[in-house]
């Protein structure tokens, strides 16, 4: 088995056909096919089945795919870190949702930078589904985000950092900003935000909880930051985290103070239990975790910094 064979296998799966994968990989289809065949021979099992619609994963292929992605992501991470170390700078890669990037990450990164100004921090932003995928793939060391539907599995260690009750926002000049009951907003048009497969679910659940049917959805945005940008230029409403001050829009966007209680988002700190954090990633992780728990963070030790042992603890790794 070689890395190139794994790359060709993942490429074929991602593009859905050997022809498209070969074009994207700038190689011949024959070469790509032979590479995947060698991988199948080395593993002693069939991974892909060709059909009229392209290719389909076999059970063995489905089993290999996440592991192949993890291997390739770890290789890419090692290559990136090695490149940065040649420049004399270690790297810490983390992920943060838009809300976490506004309210959790800045003070933590400020403290971390005060201790380790030579370390480059790579902060990936995105919805929780993308961040979880990045964590599982190994391209980030830990993530800070809300997670819905209890989809976390036993391979992840989770700390609750903070909870934030959502608010309904409207343009400051919108007459509906003075509404006091959700029923007064039943005919309004809404912007929903978040992953498309969950877009509007919190808003829809709130409407159903109070017997109002479904909201009238006029727009979908990937992030509440985008939603607020549209709210301040229209009569659309949106359900967002309470972060108008952080976005510097408190004079343009108002909170609609209704009697009903909007849903709450809980920000979580998540890492993979079975992976070892780098020394600097562990330091940043502890800063974030202790800030969420309201604990003071001790000054970072030198290379001899220790991690507490235990099934739910993080173990530092020197680079």
Automatic annotation (TrEMBL):
<feature type="region of interest" description="Disordered">
    <location>
        <begin position="295"/>
        <end position="319"/>
    </location>
</feature>
<dbReference type="InterPro" id="IPR050950">
    <property type="entry name" value="HTH-type_LysR_regulators"/>
</dbReference>
<dbReference type="Pfam" id="PF03466">
    <property type="entry name" value="LysR_substrate"/>
</dbReference>
<keyword id="KW-0238">DNA-binding</keyword>
<dbReference type="InterPro" id="IPR005119">
    <property type="entry name" value="LysR_subst-bd"/>
</dbReference>
<dbReference type="GO" id="GO:0003677">
    <property type="term" value="F:DNA binding"/>
</dbReference>
<keyword id="KW-0805">Transcription regulation</keyword>
<dbReference type="Pfam" id="PF00126">
    <property type="entry name" value="HTH_1"/>
</dbReference>
<dbReference type="InterPro" id="IPR036388">
    <property type="entry name" value="WH-like_DNA-bd_sf"/>
</dbReference>
<comment type="similarity">
    <text>Belongs to the LysR transcriptional regulatory family.</text>
</comment>
<keyword id="KW-0804">Transcription</keyword>
<dbReference type="GO" id="GO:0005829">
    <property type="term" value="C:cytosol"/>
</dbReference>
<protein>
    <submittedName>
        <fullName>LysR family transcriptional regulator</fullName>
    </submittedName>
</protein>
<dbReference type="InterPro" id="IPR000847">
    <property type="entry name" value="LysR_HTH_N"/>
</dbReference>
<dbReference type="GO" id="GO:0003700">
    <property type="term" value="F:DNA-binding transcription factor activity"/>
</dbReference>
<dbReference type="InterPro" id="IPR036390">
    <property type="entry name" value="WH_DNA-bd_sf"/>
</dbReference>
<feature type="domain" description="HTH lysR-type">
    <location>
        <begin position="1"/>
        <end position="58"/>
    </location>
</feature>
């Amino acid at each position: 088995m070689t890395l190139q064979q794994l790359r060709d296998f993942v490429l074929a799966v991602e593009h859905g056909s050997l022809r498209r994968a070969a074009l994207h990989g700038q190689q011949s289809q024959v070469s790509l096919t032979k590479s995947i065949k060698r991988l199948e021979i080395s593993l002693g099992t069939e991974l892909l089945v060709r059909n009229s619609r392209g290719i389909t994963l076999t059970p063995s292929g489905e089993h290999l795919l996440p592991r192949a992605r993890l291997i390739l992501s770890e290789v890419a991470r090692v290559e990136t870190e090695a490149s940065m170390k040649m420049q004399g700078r270690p790297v810490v890669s983390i992920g943060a949702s838009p809300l976490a990037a506004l309210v959790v990450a800045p003070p933590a990164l400020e403290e971390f930078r005060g201790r380790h100004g030579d370390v480059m921090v790579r902060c990936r932003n995105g919805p929780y589904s993308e961040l979880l995928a990045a964590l599982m793939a190994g391209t980030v060391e830990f993530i800070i985000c809300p997670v819905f539907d209890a989809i976390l599995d036993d391979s992840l260690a989770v700390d609750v950092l903070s909870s934030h009750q959502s608010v309904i926002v409207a343009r400051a000049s919108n007459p509906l900003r003075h509404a006091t009951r959700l029923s007064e907003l039943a005919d309004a048009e809404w912007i929903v935000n978040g992953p498309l497969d969950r877009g509007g679910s919190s808003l829809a659940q709130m409407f159903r909880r109070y017997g109002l049917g479904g909201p009238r959805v006029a727009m979908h945005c990937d992030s509440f930051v985008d939603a607020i940008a549209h709210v301040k230029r229209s009569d659309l409403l949106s359900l967002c985290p309470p972060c108008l001050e952080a976005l510097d829009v408190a004079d343009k966007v108002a909170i609609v103070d209704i009697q009903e209680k909007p849903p709450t988002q809980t920000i979580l700190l998540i890492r993979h239990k079975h992976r070892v954090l780098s020394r600097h990633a562990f330091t940043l992780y502890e800063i974030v975790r202790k800030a969420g728990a309201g604990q003071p963070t001790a000054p970072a030790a030198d290379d001899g910094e220790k991690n507490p042992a235990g099934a739910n603890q993080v173990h530092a790794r020197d680079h």
